[in-house]
Amino acid sequence: NAGVTQTPKFQVLKTGQSMTLQCAQDMNHEYMSWYRQDPGMGLRLIHYSVGAGITDQGEVPNGYNVSRSTTEDFPLRLLSAAPSQTSVYFCASSYSASRGINYGYTFGSGTRLTVV
Amino acid sequence: TQLLEQSPQFLSIQEGENLTVYCNSSSVFSSLQWYRQEPGEGPVLLVTVVTGGEVKKLKRLTFQFGDARKDSSLHITAAQPGDTGLYLCAVVTSNSGYALNFGKGTSLLVTP
User: How does residue B111 score in pLDDT terms, banded at 50, 70 and 90?
Assistant: First the structure.
């Protein structure tokens, strides 16, 4: 089924460990982005990409790296996990804007990360 | 500062009741999106509104974009338990690569 695939669905890390959250889409979408969702804080933008080879920081980028070597994949790397990074992470993708209008994103089902 | 303010934060109603949730801002937007999120899942796009004053209907859900394109509302007629979820409004801005900026959402519970 076409869509956004995130792996893993659940992960427990120890403080200081590193890991990569995977995100892949098969809809040939140009735009991709990562969000974290925390109680009381809503969904916040971590990093985004407008195409292969182009990435930029969002609202809460510290402690995370991204790269976009292909249109399909947009992995999120945690460099040295901290308890403050305990959250649910969502990846999303979309077609590029048309005349300045974006018509909506498709989201993955999320990765629930706990850092102990 | 939160770009989008959603109200109410929580809403608990009985099946068959009508409800309206709001998404407000002091900024003007070229478009606005509504999503619904169920527990353990990612948000799912419901609608995108583009034109000031625009009204879109999706079965029992009616979405309106304010005339000045600063606010939006979602009205649900005869709510059903299947409408339970978190309703999120979001906008994109060109200075963040058209990524989404979300309100904090309205959590809706519809009981039989």
Answer: very high
Check pLDDT > 90 for residue B110. Answer: yes
Q: Are B100 and A92 an interchain contact pair (Cβ–Cβ within 8 Å)?
A: yes
Question: What whole-number distance in Å separates Cα of residue B69 and Cα of residue A51?
Answer: 29
Query: Average pLDDT, stretch B28-33?
Result: 93
pLDDT at B94 over 80: no
CB contacts of A107 in chain B (<8 Å) are: 35, 42-44
- With an 8 Å Cβ cutoff, is B41 touching chain A? yes
Q: How far apart are CA B111 and CA A102, in angstroms?
A: 35
Distance of CA B106 to the CA centre of its chain: 8
Q: B33: which chain A residues are within 8 Å (Cβ-Cβ)?
A: 102, 104-105
Longest Cα–Cα distance of chain B, Å, equals 44
Arithmetic mean of pLDDT, B85-100: 90
Instruction: Inform me whether the C-beta atom of residue B3 falls under 8 Å from chain A C-beta atoms.
Output: no
Integer Cα distance of B67 and A71 in angstroms = 37
